[in-house]
Amino acid sequence: xxxxxxxxxxxxxxxxxxxxxxxxVAILGFAVWVVFLDSSSMVRCTRIKMNIREQENQKExxxxxxxxxxxxxxxxxxxxxxxxxxxxxxxxxxxxxxxxFVVEPRR
Length: 107
Description:
By secondary structure, the protein is mostly helical. The chain contains 5 helices and no strands.
């Protein structure tokens, strides 16, 4: 008897009528399918957009690096003194009559 009374209370509510409606169930099922289960789901599209944004940032960073390196290359190829300075600083080149001391900071 209590089961029938409980069922009567539940089935009389407005929420149960909405859930019982086949169109609402179909729309909810479609929404779940599109957002989570489909091969081109919204979750996957969001991840792809984030990945594209990250790669565009990397692309801009590398373009800046290329621009900077091209400026250095242009400077080194146009000025012999800057080429000598670069070789001495980066590759520790020295002249025959010079002594070279490398001082490394303590760690």
